[in-house]
Amino acid sequence: MDAIRQVLIVEDLPDVADWLHLQVTQLLAPQAIDLAVSREEGQEKITGKDYDLALIDLGLPDGSGMDLVRPFKEKNRHSLCVVTTIFDDAEHLFGSLRAGADGYLLKDDVESEFSQQLSGILAGRPPLSSSIARKLLEQFHPIFGEKEVTLTRREKDILTLIAKGLSVKHTAEKLGISHYTAASYMKDIYAKLQVNSRAEATLKAIHIGLVNPT
């Protein structure tokens, strides 16, 4: 890709922000690096200036950095937005990717691996920590010999609505059943799909063709 000239770092911890600034300076040599220490400040930076790359933390003092991913990509369509976080769970990962993140790096990775993934941006390699890449592969490539999951018609209806973003309460209302009945169905769905969150259930719904990812 083209050279990285303008970079935005959204990070509230001073030591981590300094470390990211050093990494970006050494590896990408941009013309300018701006820092935002909150979601609100990050939104102001995104609104007021164009960037080639954004490194966004998720755990900000005034909310989730995930809320900045989509606005950044909408304004900078051909730029890269990389989440840099300590959260390695599926819900944060897939939520960030669905919002439009181009990469997901773990700040507690070995420094050499983090640096390698970050420097790979210029070579066009996807900036993904190795553990995150494995998690993605596990979601889209079932283990050999895994039994096919069979859901009832009602379970499929509920999973489809949940995967489209409806809450259990609104799903129950839409299907004309009680909230407790819907919750019981969700418990069974989680057990059948062997997942622990709505994000993982959504990925499974996409995988088995219940929901179109677009």
Automatic annotation (TrEMBL):
GO terms for molecular function: DNA binding. Keywords: DNA-binding, Phosphoprotein, Transcription, Transcription regulation. SMART domains: HTH_LUXR, REC. The keyword Signal does not apply. Pfam families: GerE, Response_reg. One of its GO terms (biological process) is regulation of DNA-templated transcription. Residues 144-209 form the HTH luxR-type domain. Residues 6-122 form the Response regulatory domain. The modification 4-aspartylphosphate is found at residue 57. InterPro entries: CheY-like_superfamily, Sig_transdc_resp-reg_C-effctor, Sig_transdc_resp-reg_receiver, Tscrpt_reg_LuxR_C, WalR-like, WH-like_DNA-bd_sf. PANTHER family: NITRATE_NITRITE RESPONSE REGULATOR PROTEIN NARP, TWO-COMPONENT RESPONSE REGULATOR. This is Response regulator.
